[in-house]
Amino acid sequence: MSLTEATANMSLQDDNTQTKRVDYISWQDYFMAVAVLAAKRSKDPKRQVGACIVNDEKRIVGIGYNGMPNGCSDDEFPWGSKKHHFVCHAEMNAIVNSNSVVKNCTIYVSLFPCNECAKIVIQSGIKKVIYLSDKKAYKDEYKASRKMLNAAKVELEQYKTNQNKIEIDFTIEGDMMSP
Ligand SMILES: O=c1[nH]c(=O)n([C@H]2C[C@H](O)[C@@H](COP(=O)(O)O)O2)cc1CO
Ligand SMILES: [Zn+2]
């Protein structure tokens, strides 16, 4: 090793006073949190749903939440019982707005997909659904959804975590930016 190389290596030697953080969030928590955060964009007064599509390189390729179609104003279209005629579901939005291939991807959803979304999930080639809530499982449309997803061999997994809350605090982030 030349003297210059040795000097360069010395200047890169760590003092070992700091070790790697251990309380970082897992990939699963991160992707589900992205889906839940997307849901916060929804204008639906009763239910906000979010979806996040991830490929096998852990890259996010699509995000969506439930909302009115393009060109259909949130202020003019109804948010009461008639909303069902119009609103686009989170899963559909995540798929159709994706910026890359969704085939073989995993979709993280805050609510188990309905039968209509299940059809789109299957046809798009998504291979796994990780869902947070399954609160509508007793309804026929969700039974149909599960039946189709199972038949199409789309893997279903209920999201489990030991971290019930992830806090985002912009003021703390601001402090962390200082040296
Ligand atoms: O799979 C789904 N994805 C999704 O985005 N949604 C949205 C559409 C509506 O805005 C809302 C359903 O509202 P409600 O629970 O009031 O029926 O949730 C609903 C489902 C299933 O109901
Ligand atoms: Zn749906």
Automatic annotation (TrEMBL):
Residues 135-169 form a coiled coil. The keyword Coiled coil applies. GO terms for cellular component: cytoplasm. Transmembrane segments: none annotated. Gene3D superfamilies: Cytidine Deaminase, domain 2. This is Probable deoxycytidylate deaminase. It catalyses: dCMP + H2O + H(+) = dUMP + NH4(+). Its EC number is 3.5.4.12. The active site is at residue 91. Its cofactor is Zn(2+). Keywords: Coiled coil, Hydrolase, Metal-binding, Nucleotide biosynthesis, Zinc. One of its GO terms (molecular function) is zinc ion binding. GO terms for biological process: nucleotide biosynthetic process; pyrimidine nucleotide metabolic process. Zn(2+) binds at residues 89, 114, 117.
